[in-house]
Design goal:
The chain is an alpha/beta fold and about 500 residues long. The chain has helices at about 20-25, 45-50, 55-65, 70-80, 115, 120-130, 145-155, 175-180, 195-210, 210-220, 230-250, 270-280, 300-305, 330-335, 340-355, 360-365, 380-390, 400-415, 430-440, 445-460, 465, 485-490, and strands at about 5-10, 10-15, 35, 95, 100-105, 135-140, 160-170, 190-195, 220-225, 260-265, 285-295, 305-310, 355-360, 370-375, 420-425, 480. Bound molecules: pyridoxal-5'-phosphate.
């Protein structure tokens, strides 16, 4: 079988193996690593339907991370998807309101970021060994709320690594913030910035591509890598749960072998839905890829018009992990629909950096037929939580509610009744105020008190991820201006 080789979306020259792409995170020219081909699943869906999550993960990941040995990959998978998940199924499906909710929030930090960030530290330390890396790896991450905590939990006290997380000081939920600032581990650093997520992400990308800084770091025995969803070490593990969801439906007799399913994904940085797109390319029978946005509906507009335009106001919503105007992973889709053309992609991204927008060609637009874009306003998000709760008793979080609304809109719009999987990306307990406010009233001042009330209403137990931080001491309280991000990094590294 031919090795999968990775190159940058913005230049064809550099070619690396999977482990090196995982280590680097981002290509030196600022592009994202993309595979030169996407292999087809080499087991039948019937066969996979008899496998558990870990076995399914191996069948998918071995095809894209081809320079990892079987032993290495199985070691990573077994250590990642273990009892830190609160169910053996890892990603269970729950049927409610005419769709299947794929619950991706049973990991340590109760958001779907755990699905990939539980394994990334293993993929990365294995890659460091394979590539004879002597430097300490410094994970540099911008977060809209969920990546930060999931990355911190994954990398805390992992030998040979340090992790620095930047989050928008005024742009995350109180529980998200408490989760991060109470993080244990001497190798962890959490910093609030006076800016939004896009500012944090742009600042981090700048640090990544600064050659002088890289040289200084190297001298001091450090090198950067990324835990953001631009890292293929995050993308690949996310393909797994789409294959898993499909094969569970098959095993349960909900679909017949080969039937198409639709997937709905609440989208921000376009990582999760891109994984579904790759799953489809690997032969998984997916019909429509339904991309759900909140009021920051830059992706909805893009799918409508073929014009990507970030020149608009940034809206703070009740689904903060999707408050994004520059969806990084869309760059990979642009590259692919341009015919794997790095030159074309580089030109679009230059336009985006300089003018905040770009327009794709009609030919490229024609390749987006499998995508459907929709969005939910704040009221529609609330209503989606309430109506599902009222009719079924099932409680979903605000991000998942955006997807739920868009799915209902899609059905009305198209009369397409294909069996549908909705990616459920966070536990409702992560966004208690908004969720409880939607189904009842959220009057208590303290978010933890609200969690008690939500638990009673939903007939659920408060997840360990919330109860354990309730009285935990704050360990990180630094807040900096965007301009001072580099200083903050050097400070933590004693450089
Ligand atoms: C990160 C996140 C999203 C968006 O996922 P992308 O891969 O960035 O599109 C949606 N919901 C939740 C809860 C998240 O944490």
């Amino acid at each position: 079988m031919a090795d999968v080789i990775y190159s940058s979306t913005r230049g064809a020259d550099l070619k690396v193996k999977a482990s090196e792409a995982v280590l680097r995170g981002l290509a030196p020219d600022g592009g994202l690593f993309v595979p030169d081909h996407i292999p087809h699943l080499d087991k039948t869906l019937k066969e996979i339907s008899q496998m558990n999550y870990q076995q399914t993960a191996y069948e998918v990941m071995k095809l894209l991370l081809t320079d990892y040995t079987e032993e290495e990959l199985k070691y990573c998978i077994e250590h990642a998807y273990d009892s830190k998940f609160d169910t053996d199924e890892i990603a269970p499906l729950t049927e409610a309101g005419g769709a299947y909710y794929l619950e991706l929030y049973h990991g340590r930090t109760i958001a779907f970021k755990d699905m990939a960030l539980s394994i990334l530290p293993y993929l990365m330390t294995t890659a460091a060994k394979k590539n004879n890396v002597k430097n300490e790896i410094v994970i540099l991450t911008a977060t809209s709320g969920d990546t930060g905590k999931a990355a911190l939990a994954g990398f805390a006290d992992v030998p040979g690594t340090r992790i620095i997380v930047f989050y928008p000081k005024h742009g995350v939920s109180p529980i998200q913030e408490k989760q991060m600032v109470t993080q244990q581990g001497d190798n962890t650093c959490v910093i609030g910035i006076e800016g939004n997520f896009d500012d944090a992400q742009t600042g981090v990308k700048k640090l990544f591509t600064d050659d002088n800084l890289a040289a200084e770091m190297d001298k001091a025995g450090f090198q950067f890598s990324s835990a953001n969803s631009i890292n293929i070490g995050r993308l690949v593990p996310q393909i797994v749960y789409y294959v898993y969801a499909y094969t569970r439906l098959l095993a349960g007799g909900r679909i017949a072998d080969g039937d198409a399913i639709n997937v709905v994904v609440p989208t921000g940085n376009f990582g999760n839905i891109l994984a579904a797109y790759y799953a489809k390319k690997m032969g998984l029978p997916i019909g429509k890829l339904i991309c759900a946005s909140n009021s920051n509906k830059v992706l909805y507009d893009f799918f409508q018009t073929g014009s990507y335009d970030r020149n608009r106001d940034f809206v703070l919503t009740s689904s903060p992990s999707m408050d994004i105007l520059i969806s990084s992973n869309l760059e990979r889709l642009i590259y692919h629909i341009a015919g794997d053309d790095a030159g074309a992609d580089a030109a679009y991204m230059k336009n985006l950096a300089q003018t905040g927008k770009y327009d794709i060609t009609d030919e490229m637009k024609a390749k987006l037929v499998d995508f459907y874009g929709g969005f939910a306003s704040e009221d529609e998000t609330k209503e989606a939580i309430k109506s599902l709760y009222d009719s079924t008793g099932y409680v979903i979080d605000t991000h998942t509610a955006v997807a739920s609304h868009v799915y209902n809109q899609y059905k009305k719009d198209t009369n397409d009744n294909t069996v549908t999987v909705i990616a459920s990306t966070a536990s409702p307990f992560k966004f208690t105020r908004a969720v409880l406010g939607a189904i009842d009233k959220a009057e208590a001042e303290d978010d933890f008190e609200l969690a008690d009330q939500l638990a009673a209403k939903a007939g659920l137990e408060i997840p360990e991820a919330v109860s354990s931080i309730r009285n935990a001491p704050v360990r990180h309280d630094t807040v900096v201006e965007v301009a001072d991000m580099e200083k903050a990094v050097k400070n933590f590294l004693n450089m």
